[in-house]
Fold these 4 entries.
Entry 1:
Amino acid sequence: MGSITASPVAPDLELADFIDFEIDQSIPQDALTRVLSRPPFRIVEGVFNIRDLGHIGHPGIQPGLVYRSGLLANLTEVGKSQLVSELSLGAVFDLRVTGKGTPPPVNLSDFTANDGNDAHGPERAPGAAGFKQFAAIKASYMMAFLEAVQVKYGGMETFVVDVIGMSKADVEAVRAVLRGESLSGDL
């Protein structure tokens, strides 16, 4: 990728500034490209929104060790090679709760009228009642989730064991990896 320079429209925009944009407000494309082309983000063919969790200053994760991404279903052969050769990826963990990865059945006939536009969830269209409020979820919501996990389960460890289904040994192994410690066995 070529060198990316500051946006002539918004030269000072940084990643943290994007959270202040309203959902119906456009982010200048050159600013978006510039921000998403540097750490913590990585560009991997066929992967959506992959980022280095250690690069964002998490105290227990070394940079270049743990990545989080969106959908991996479109990962290409080139992307697989990038994960191994450029990111040194050795394992993929799917930490979604049971059922989240299984999409609901789709009636394809719903998508035949109006080029499928009528079936793509009119309730999620910009301007629909509640859309702007839903899209305005901020960091405070994540903090509220973490507080609720603390209250209900006593912490994230209990949550990942009891709800996600990881074993305590897996949790300890993940902790060791995040600290950069070598493991005596495989995960």
Entry 2:
Amino acid sequence: MEKLRPDVLVCVLKTNLDRRILLEEKWYRVPLAHAPRRKPKFLAFYQGASFKDSGERIELYGRIKYWRLKKRKEILPEEKGHPRANDTYLQFFLSSVSRLRRPVLNRARLRISFGFTSLEKLRREQSIRGLFDIPPMDDILEAMLRKNKIPFKKEFIVKRKNAKIFRLDFALIGSPKPIDVECDGYRWHSRKQQRIKDKLRDEELKKLGWKIIRISEEDLLKKPSSVLKKIKKSFSLQRDFQNIGS
């Protein structure tokens, strides 16, 4: 199988002005401090939530024609009073700006910064996860627990007093108090109604003797060491798993 070349640099459009400049003048700026280590052939542009109906997606991209180094105040002379006016930027000029047949959507609302992908994947993938090969959140956490030899049961069932059940993402049993580790995807768990359900669920589990740890998708992807430290701090490793599943 031919290896796909990561020749597309994914950038971020922060404002409508940035988008207008891109479409009308066909250039984009990158702070030299954040310049890519390798030279891209294309730029693709992520539009954040501030773009509302056209936000949280990549829909525009273009081939790089040439680039140059310039001070910010030279690129944007009308903003000479900007705090970074004297900083050096890479100014990329594009031969054209095209629109993808289907936008690449950020359904999980992952935080996006500069990153490389291939032109083939940009045109093919429909999600940011697929574009950057980001596995599902529970797969990442499961791999972390296994690597650190923290025993767990996935999708562990807890019986409730009303004959119904709770299905836990990860149950860490072996410490004096059983621990429920929940993976909170941003889009789903940020909804008001779901937050209320989560709170009621947590309160009931606490009454049943469980400690609850909720891990956000952003923390797991951006600060995995902090997530691991949080879990280890709450969990005294004991290898006695004899009561699990009984």
Entry 3:
Amino acid sequence: LDAMGGGPDVVQARIMANLPMRRLAEPDEIVEAMLFACAPGNSFMTGQTLVVDGGLSAV
């Protein structure tokens, strides 16, 4: 954190400023993506990377 120039609140604000959604994910949002990937109805999806990053990879 010191290398990033501030305490936890400053670092979190800098990270969120670079995310298109301007917020961090809630734990249940990550869990929902995991449940989707593991669901029996999703059995035909193979070899994919499911990106849950608030749009950061689209920038």
Entry 4:
Amino acid sequence: MWQQFSPEKPQWPTVELIIVGILPLVLVLVGTICNMGCIIVLLSRTHRNNCRSHQPTSTNVYLIYLCFVDTVGLYQFNLDNAIGNLTGKSITDRSLVACKLIEFTGYYTLHLPVMYLTMATVDRTFMLWSSAYKRKIARPKQAWKICILIAGIFVVTDCFLLALGYRADDGSIQCYHTTNAVLTKAFNLFIIWFHLVFMSMVSFVVMIISTVLAIIKLIRLPRVNEAAYLRNKRISVMLGLMCAAYILLTLPNRLCFTVLAPLLEDSSGSNTIFALSDLLTYLASSLNFLFLSVSVKGFWRDLGNLFIMKKFCSNTIGTTTDILP
């Protein structure tokens, strides 16, 4: 994306090499390992919960999907930018098919994490405020269906991106552009109203409102069961911090590639600015492990069990039973 704004000669070549070429690859490696570890631990907790006849939890499912799409997202714009900087030719410049796929999956994997994190926050808030919701709706089976439905809806909303991109007369590949005026107008509207306003601003407002409502409920909640209260508090704080980090790290990128793009594209060092905003976005996709490992009791013990090949459904003394309710 931002390569189209780049000067022919980098303004700060060393800084650009680190920000655009090296750090994205580090994020891909670290983010993949951390997110896959989170997915395995969350899946094991859901499975162990069913084995022990505890009430299943839907929040786990949303977090599993969040970690998965964050992992896939690391390999889109992030990897394309890194390869382009290190080799002089990005993936999107090598093949028209690759160009179209990255156009679609790049935005697709930016939109899904926002929605899944929003759903996890809303789900937790409703569980605190409504016992009926907790009994009837907050179930893994329902959450799986909702996540699949969300993924299907975004396929429909984002699929027109596959029509962008074409091979020019000189043989070069022009990504995110089209000779069709209608598609160009649709893409411009998509970037502003769907990508920025709806998927960023509206979703962020919902996250903030849900977090505030969860805090209010926790303050008013009677401490009849101290363990349950602390568990709810810990998970709610974790989701609130995840939302705050996601908003702070992704909003600069949304603004740089939409309303601020005309101001930045001709400025000195624009290449580094756009790359840095991309890097912050994908840093947000790599922080799930940090929040889960700090906030979820027994996370490290469960993760350790992965390496010593213990069955998560066993009743061995010392295995943690704390789960996301």
